[in-house]
Sequence to fold (422 residues):
Amino acid sequence: MTRLVLNVGGGRSDIRIGVGAFRLEDHALKKRTLILTDRKVQALHGSLFRGWNTLVLDRGEKMKTLAVVERISRALLRRGGDRGATIVGVGGGVICDLAGFAAAVYMRGIRFGFVPTTLLAQADASLGGKNGVNLDRYKNVIGTFRQPDFVLADPRFLSTLPPAAVREGLAEVVKAAAIRDRALFIELENAAERALAGDLAVLERLVARAAAVKIAVVARDERERGARTLLNFGHTFGHALEKTAGLSHGEAISAGMAAAAGDSLGGIVACAVMGLPVGLGEPFFDSFESVLGHLLFSIPGIKGLEFGAGFRGAALRGRDYNDVILDASGRTRTNHDGGLNGGITNGNDVVFRVAVRPTATLGRPQETVDMITGRPAAVQAGGRHDACFALRMPVILEAAAAFVAADFQLCFHPAFHEGGLP
Fold:
């Protein structure tokens, strides 16, 4: 178990990271505490808080409003909450923000702590004492600096996270490594696959090291007047992407860090074509996937393509790979073939993924050769720098798939061979 202590702003924050860190009774009195959580966390972990006063909220950034803070305050009042009360936020970043801000303003300040249940919250959002809510389209514009009395980051909560949520949290670990801890960066490169697979020992180490980076920065500059601005690495562009592109916080910050560094990211983008009838396509040159692939590889930047289970399917045995047909419509129990048999649609969704390369033109110098003199040179793109054009790819894939689907509907519709469509 890792224990970190932050003494700043006249307060003391006790941070515990590791299996067994969740011992809430050691830090809060049950009868004087309000647990603040969301519906997903309540469904997964609610049994751990049975008997505690609990307020369950809906999920999502939409909850970070003053109206919800007022609702939390009323819940405290109904339960007789006075200046000796404690709020404990159990959940991800949104819950931490709400619990911290409500505690800072209720009766001019009461005790509060966090039990972060996501990797992003354990590695970043629950630490440092920035608590805020949104106002209209402005993110975290109303808030406070106030440190939690305690943070209990137990990696066992992370065992329920899907891989996408782990990737999102790793973005903040990458940020911590990039700004202050080279050894952590090396560990990330070596242990990323185990972290994504849910290895709790690896996740615990990564959380502890990322937390140590953030606590060290906050200890020097709690109010963000200097050194703490390092913790905003990737967040200026990232927050804009999060708001306008509908990306998760971690996805947006990943692209934001690349943009801030003048670099770029690639991506893997999935697409599904639904509602196609059985029988479109021919087994060889005019198979559905060969025609779609021809069009997709005409799009600059696409460097790979797979259908259904793709390369992952190559590791399966035939008995596990084969899609069992359930009824006469062609519907199958699984869709490892991606809606295609022998190049012909089988009535299931046609599912494919493309690999999109990082943007080639960068906002930083790159080594090259002057083709006239033959001497080493450097090239740097001017003007707009697109940090991740994979973000633009979904609508392009949808349009390409729609063209191919419409073409096949015309070519293989029975009426086409019987004198034309009506």
Summary: The radius of gyration is 26 Å. The chain has a mean pLDDT of 92. Residues 200-220 form the longest helix (21 residues).
